[in-house]
Structures are given as structure tokens and as C-alpha cells.
């Protein structure tokens, strides 16, 4: 699921850098039938689905950017 977002994520990463991207849960859609939180976050974590992201970029998108925005 959600692999159709890959080209958009890559374009945003190329334009702004991973340090300016932040993963979001897309709530309240995660609680609707057919949508799961695990599948949404797995898109960023899975090295095969978004093979253009490095481990450090994944870390920025999933954690680093949010820490800078909310805890600086």
C-alpha cells in the first residue's frame, strides 16, 4: 500500500532535502476500514519500497525533523 507516493516523496526529498520532510500518520484516515498505521509507516521504513532513501534520510523523515520542529 501507498507505493504510489514514492515518486512524490522522491521529488520532495530532491527539492527540499530529507531534513525538511516529516512523516505524518494521516489521521483520521488510519482508523477507517482498509487503512492501517503499520502500513503507512512501513512505507518509509522499508528499504525496498523507497530504495532511493538512505538510512539517515529515513531517520530524518521519521524522527529528526519532528524533533527539530517540536523540541528545539
Description:
- By secondary structure, this protein is mostly helical.
- 51% of the residues lie in helices and 0% in strands.
- It contains 3 helices and no strands.
- The protein has helices at 6-16, 37-45, 55-71.
- The chain is globular.
- It starts with 5 loop residues before the first helix and ends with a helix.
- The mean pLDDT is 87.
Brief rundown of the structure:
It contains 3 helices and no strands.
Describe the global form: globular
Oligomeric description of these chains: single chain
Average pLDDT, rounded to a whole number, is 87
* Biggest sheet architecture: none
How many beta-strand runs? 0
Task: Note poorly predicted spans.
Answer: none
Number of helices: 3
Radius of gyration: 12 Å
Straight-line distance between termini:
33 Å
Strand and helix order: HHH
SSE arrangement:
Blueprint (H helix, E strand, L loop, with lengths): L5 H11 L20 H9 L9 H17 L1
Which structural traits does this protein have?
mainly alpha, 0% strand, 3 helices, single chain, 72 residues
Amino acid at each position: 500500500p501507498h507505493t504510489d507516493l514514492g515518486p512524490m516523496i522522491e521529488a520532495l526529498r530532491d527539492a527540499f532535502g530529507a531534513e525538511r520532510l516529516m512523516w505524518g500518520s494521516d489521521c483520521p484516515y488510519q482508523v477507517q476500514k482498509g487503512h492501517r498505521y503499520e502500513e503507512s509507516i512501513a512505507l518509509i521504513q522499508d528499504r525496498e519500497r523507497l530504495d532511493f532513501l538512505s538510512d539517515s534520510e529515513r531517520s530524518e523523515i521519521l524522527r529528526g525533523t519532528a524533533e527539530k520542529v517540536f523540541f528545539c
